[in-house]
Amino acid sequence: MNEFKPLPNLPPPVATAGVIGWLRANLFPSPFSALLTVLGIYFLYITLVPFLDWAVFSADWFGTDKSACISGGACWAFVTSRIDFFIYGFFPTSEVWRINICFALFVISFAPQFFDAFPYKKNLGIFSLTVFPAISYVLISGGWFGLVEVSTEKWGGLSLTLMLAYVGIVAALPFGVVLALGRRSQLPVIRTFCILFIEWWRGVPLISVLFMSSVMLPLFLPEGMNFDKLLRALIGIIMFQSAYMAEVVRGGLQAIPRGQHEAADALGLGYWKSMLLVILPQALKLVIPGIVNTFIALFKDTTLVLIIGLFEVLASVEAVVRGAQWRGLTFEGYVFVGLCFWVFCFGMSRYSQKLERKLNTGHKR
Amino acid sequence: MASTDFAVQMINVNKWYGEFHVLKDINLNVSVGERIVICGPSGSGKSTMIRCINRLEEHQAGQIIVGGIELTHDLKRIDEVRREVGMCFQHFNLFPHLTVLENCTLALIWVRKMPKKKAEEVAMHYLERVKIPEQMNKFPGQLSGGQQQRVAIARSLCMNPKVMLFDEPTSALDPEMIKEVLDVMVQLAEEGMTMLCVTHEMGFAKLVADRVIFMDAGQVVEENKPEPFFNDPQNDRTKLFLSQILNH
Ligand SMILES: Nc1ncnc2c1ncn2[C@@H]1O[C@H](COP(=O)(O)OP(=O)(O)O)[C@@H](O)[C@H]1O
Ligand SMILES: [Mg+2]
Q1: Of A28, A224, A290, A304, which is least packed with CB atoms within 10 Å of its CB?
Q2: Does the ipTM exceed 0.90?
Q3: Rounded CA gap, A340 and A156, in Å?
């Protein structure tokens, strides 16, 4: 009788496992690759080392004006001494705690989304899209519950940037979805309206949208009906970005096979239910990379509001490096602003990758 | 005129895709509990015909009456008809983002307004009937074709339809999976479900069909009980078709 006996498991040969195996497989698999590796290391050495030296090791971190920066490295003293201005703009110092609460809520509602095991993620997600913006608005603008009112001219810095981006993102996605559905509607009136809307907003540069919202719009509005400059800019950003979003979402809708619509119809789900329960969840999942791309673009485009005199983070930094105390620190200024933006954009990108992995139900055949 | 004795009545139904006349004067009465198998060459309009019954396609002339309700542009009536009619597709069309159980409960919860617990009980009942209750928490993409089609049948049955439409339910399946799906359909037929089934599984037709309908070029060419249909076809076109599918 022939009995099946599995062979014993042997350890892999040394050359393919462990540190040496990894090095060999990834860095020195052939003479040409070895050459590239060496060149790459040399390139990193001649760029990264001086940069790190400038940015970290011989940088000056503290001081009250430019004279504190003598060591020849980066002059971060202007960041540390004006950090409040960069974060809060002209927000009254006594009221800054209100913004801090919003930051804390923001972190509390988003940080758990990065961890699989955390419970209540769904509730926190809904909270961060609905209750959180409302609370933040009440807290920051004040005028209610005995809070001092802070007019929007005083808002600024990174907090204004984040606010613009957050409201833009939270509003542009649903608007974009509605526009995308409208563009595929059977009803000619709705379809035409959506096409005109999308093509109009996509066709004009954001900078001119902002300019029009701040300079032209008041000319057309009746006397005395002058609403907030920030609100006008925000509406401009939302309209502009939802047009882009609509096209991204439409791409996803088009990729859903007709059979999915038919199955939903055959079950009697009706238009809205079949869209919300069957089509959109699949379509949005497909276009997560495109959606996040649009979010990131939106986030960076918020810097354009500086041309209509809103002091978001880039404008605040520029104002400081133009001032007498810190004149000429433009390079440090832009590195700092770049880093601020990069941190948030990278976070979004990581989160979207995580979401894609999580939503993958293995239906690709 | 609309008799409720018939589960489905098609009276002089005509349909065009643009200029193309795809259904020509279709007349078909299906009694309650009757099992009908529809066959015919590809492109003859079989799918189009049965898809008119739950208004996945719109007919342009004639009358279609399902369970006493005539199909018109009235959306309410279309919804009523769709509640009475279940459908299974060649490519299953399960919802890939939902688990097997969620696929089955979706319409119960959102169309029938059933509480989730109750809907899950109903869904489990039908998943047991198609013999895959143990797969309830998997996603469709993790199942074999035969299993997916059985889930699709269970999903339709959950809505407790009076009529079931099948559009080539086994054509996309590997041979060894066809039987498991046909077994479920035979069982359904034995329980007295009214069925309209587009299929080329002639064994199935002989076993359960009350009537076999042969279509070509958008017309009903011949209809008869299975035994005379297969053994003594009247029309030359039918003879040719049968010789092609039976002798290969
Ligand atoms: N949406 C459509 N638009 C135009 N022609 C169609 C459409 N659907 C089907 N047809 C045509 O109608 C005819 C019948 O199609 P169908 O009912 O799917 O045939 P069968 O199911 O018998 O193979 C075919 O010639 C097909 O090309
Ligand atoms: Mg067909």
Answers
A1: A224
A2: yes
A3: 15
